[in-house]
Design brief:
Blueprint (H helix, E strand, L loop, with lengths): L1 H12 L7 E2 L1 H7 L2 E7 L4 H4 L8 E10 L6 E14 L6 E15 L2 H4 L7 E4 L5 E2 H12 L14 H13 L3 H12 L1
């Protein structure tokens, strides 16, 4: 009898398998919510810009309609801690991403103009959307242009402060030095 109870408990704790493709409009009609996670290493385009491919991406997406019931709306969050390179000191850093999702599913640019304020368009043709690709696209869009440690955690901060202090003391010192070099040539 104990084996049955343990198996039942394990089955309830397991998350349902995520669909590979989704139809947002169908999910919106049902008022569905999808939540789950992917290994970072499985998101190949994202991995191209990362230092390390460890970790997990977690997400929660809710499908519904806007207040006028005209558009399918996707809301939710996508979160991950990604291993990237600081562009100031070139050291590895953990980059925490928490990206809100607020998308309106449209089939044309004319429909996109009619979305609620702040709602980004998601162009969908008749084909279903790849869920992993959708999550990956949203994460790539959430990446900063130039990831950097906080000033107090970056090894290059003291060097930059010294350079900036020298420039504040005499902003034309570099020009004077260049002028001297051209005279000596």
């Amino acid at each position: 009898m104990t084996g049955i109870i343990v198996m039942d408990t394990l089955c309830r704790l397991m998350l349902p398998e995520l669909p590979h493709t989704i139809d947002p409009k169908s999910l919106a009609r049902k008022g569905a919510t999808i939540e789950g996670n992917y290994a970072v290493r499985d998101l190949h385009r994202l991995c191209e810009v990362l230092h390390d491919h460890t970790g997990r991406v977690t997400f929660r997406l809710e499908f519904g309609r806007d207040k006028d019931r005209k558009h399918c709306i996707i809301t939710g969050t996508i979160e991950a801690t990604l291993k990237t390179v600081c562009q100031r000191c070139l050291g590895m850093m953990d980059l925490r991403i928490s990206s809100p999702v607020y998308l309106g599913v449209v089939s044309s640019l004319e429909e996109a103009a009619d979305l609620p304020d702040g709602c980004e368009p998601l162009l969908q043709d008749a084909n279903p959307i790849s869920l992993p690709a959708f999550i990956e696209d949203e994460l790539i869009l959430a990446l900063p242009i130039s990831a950097m440690h906080d000033d107090d955690k970056c090894a290059a901060t003291s060097i930059l402060h010294d350079i900036n202090a020298a420039a504040r003391n005499n902003p034309f010192a570099v020009l004077k030095e260049m002028k001297q070099k051209t005279r000596n040539v």
